[in-house]
C-alpha cells in the first residue's frame, strides 16, 4: 500500500509529506459532519503547516480526501498533529433561507453556489417542497431538513458527501458496494443492538393550520398491534398549510412505514482490508454486505460512520451500520 499525502500552502508550493507520517486516519459520517483526515508528521524546517492549507490524500493512486487544515499543534516532541476537513465544513455556519417549490437537490445547488462550493454529481431528489423557511440555522441542517422532507414524501434516502473536492448527492441505493465483510475472513469483532429508544414510532400525528376554520387539521396513522407491544411512541410534526389533504395523508402513511420498526444497528471492528480500491469506497452513506454466521446475519447495511486507519502499509477499518 502506497500513500501520497500532499500539502499545498497556497503560495505556489506543494510539499509531499508522505514520508513524514506513519499513520493517517480518515473518518466519514453520513449526517451532520464533514469528513476528516487526522495525521501526525515529523517537524521539518522546510515545511510549515498553516490552517487553511490544502491537504490531499491518495492511496495506491486512488483519491481519498481533499480538504483544508483546520487544526494543527504539538508539544516538545518533534511531532505536529493536524486535522483537516472537507468542504462540507463550510456548511456549518448559520444563515437564513426561504425556498418555495424547490427540490432538495435544487436547494443544495443554490446554497453551494451562494458560498462558492464545488459541485460534482447531484441526483434529482424528485419531491418538490412547497415551502422551506429556515431562520438562523446551520446550512448543513437546512440541506438535511430538505432531505428529511423528501424522505417523508417519497421514501428515498440520499447521502450528501464530498468526493475529493466536489459535493455529491446520491440515492443510497446507488451507493451499494460489492464488498462482503464476513466473520470467516476479514471481520475482527462486532457489537449489535436492536432498539425502540431512538427513532422508532408506532403512531404518527401530523397537523396543519386551517385558516378557514381557524383551527388545525389533524392526520393520524398508527399500528395498534405495535402500540400494544411497545406502548405508544408518537411522532409529531406540523406541516405547511399549503400542503393538501392527499399530500399530508401520503406523508403520514410513509412516516409510519419508515419508523414503525426496531432500529437495528451493528458495529464492526478491526475489519482488515483485502482490496484497497474497493474498501476505500466503504464510506458513510454506502451500502455493504455483512455475513456473520454466528448471528445469522446475511444482508446489506447502510454505513452511518466509517473510520479508515492507514498504518504500516495496512488498512484497518471500523464501521457503524444501520438497517434501512
UniProtKB/TrEMBL annotation:
Looking up Pfam families in the UniProt record yields: YQBQ (PF24032)
Q: What is this protein called?
A: Phage protein
Coiled coil (UniProt feature): none
Q: Write down the PANTHER family for this protein, in alphabetical order.
A: PHAGE-LIKE ELEMENT PBSX PROTEIN XKDQ, POTASSIUM BINDING PROTEIN KBP
Chain ranges of the YqbQ/XkdQ domain: 24-322
Organism, per UniProt? Clostridium botulinum CFSAN001627
Give the SUPFAM superfamilies listed for this entry: Phage tail proteins (SSF69279)
